[in-house]
Amino acid sequence: MIEINGKSVYNSLCMGKLHFYGRDKKTIKRVKIENPREEILRFQNARAAAKTELRELYEKALRQVGEDNAQIFQIHIMMLDDEDYFGAITSMINNMSVNAEYAVSYTSDIFAKNFREMDDEYMQARASDVCDISDRLIKLLSDSKDADEITEPSIIIAGDLTPSETVQMDKDKILGFVTFQGSQTSHTAILARTMNIPAVINTGEISAEHHGKMAILDGFSGTLYIDPDELKIEDYKRRKALEDERSTLLAELKGKPTETRSGKKVNLYANIGSPRDLASALQNDAEGIGLFRSEFLYLEAKDFPSEDEQFAKYKEVAEGMCGKKVIVRTMDIGADKKIGYFNLPHEENPALGYRAIRICLTDTKIFKTQLRALLRASAFGNISIMFPMITSLCEVTQIKSLVEEIKRELQQDGIPFKKDIELGIMIETPAAAIISDLLAPEVDFFSIGTNDLTQYTLAVDRQNSALEPFVDVKHPAILRLIETVIQNAHKHGKWAGICGELAADLSAAEAFVNMGADELSVSPAFVLKVREKIREID
Ligand code: PEP
Ligand code: MG
């Protein structure tokens, strides 16, 4: 039995086979192939598909960001045709009978190294282009034979997982997550909490030779046991039975009010990322949806989701919640949530970059499509709209005027919508928290995003696991900001809630209720635990 320790981000247990998510180049396996000619054909098909993708990207970039910026895709097409690169891959497949993925990955490493060692700065920069085209090829090659298809319920292991990777996984086949890196508020961690499955991060690299082996993931202690012995399996079964018993006890809180012993009512909502999570929110008796991360609709799509596509999803959630509040946050793309078809520019500091409302207020066409879909869906339930990453009053003014414009359009077209739809903002930057007294009169509610508020207040990149020792999620600076925000909301007769991960921390939840928070929105799996806690508060 091998024991590997990391940091737990969700307390639960599971047992199953290990699946190494093969995105990481290091896990690309060398496979001996029987027919090099067929393998070369497979590679050539992937190369043709890559070129088609790149041509489409070029056209789109040309329209959106102009010739200069679009040029990079032409360069990539040329690189795919490069005799040396192409020749090195095909002769490797031919002479060594290796699979195309391995040949591409190996050649990419050599070429990238050569470029990096050149004197010329322009040539040095080509290293990342080689990696980029090689990743594209590997992805296409892998898709064609479903290298990453999770065939049975498994514990997923990866270096780290981006939101777009996690959204593409078949959720029914995921028992738990293990990542070599990662952080408490990374989206893998958030997904694990939504799905109610164990997740352990920061384990350091684990050898892919364990792929397919049986393992137990203990999200309580943050330990992965590979090839567990009989004793460990017995212990697992006993604890799993206890965990199930605890869930049954918590289930008794369903239907009970979320209020303190003194009778203070708190709205206890759930965070979701797609209509698929609705079942989990309802099962756990959430009183509403406090944060629907709408960007996941974009992450799941191959191109910008149309107004009708979005409308259908928002309507499904609104109707599914049967009149209970559904707060949809407009898309928060950027930072760690990058999407190819957005063609976002490369940034040195993406978390401090072109993200969320900044994209929406720049590219208003994307924003207006989403607003129209949301307003149309508001006729079918109790939808509120919330805007992320606010830093100034002027952003709120611009948003409100765009919302008014869409309302006028719908009115003219005779399309029904909720006239008095609630508009709120996320308070997740120190700037917004500090000027919350000025923002409060302009909006209907605040929802405090502690994940980003922590990142920006403590200057700790939420994606950087090396900074974990410096992250104090209950730092007095953050608690003071939260208290100020709640007070400022109340002074202006508005409500304030908390939708960041900290709302599910039971002692923090108690502190927030004592500060006067009107709402807490947590991952579905935490709803009943938080209700239990609130009902114990005097
Ligand atoms: C937050 O920042 O706390 C939040 C809820 O938003 P996200 O985690 O999606 O950035
Ligand atoms: Mg945020």
Structural commentary:
With 538 residues, the protein is α/β, with parallel strands linked by helices. The protein folds into three domains: 125 residues, Phosphohistidine domain (Glucose Oxidase, domain 1, 3-Layer(bba) Sandwich), CATH 3.50.30; 107 residues, Orthogonal Bundle (Enzyme I, Chain A, domain 2); 284 residues, TIM Barrel (Alpha-Beta Barrel). The chain is 48% helix and 14% strand. The protein contains 19 helices and 16 strands. It has an eight-stranded mixed β-sheet with strand order 1-8-7-3-4-5-6-2. The protein has an eight-stranded parallel β-barrel with strand order 9-10-11-12-13-14-15-16, surrounded by five helices. Helix 18 links the parallel strand 15 and strand 16. The longest helix has 46 residues. It is globular and about 75 Å long. The two termini are 47 Å apart. The model has no long low-confidence stretch (mean pLDDT 91).
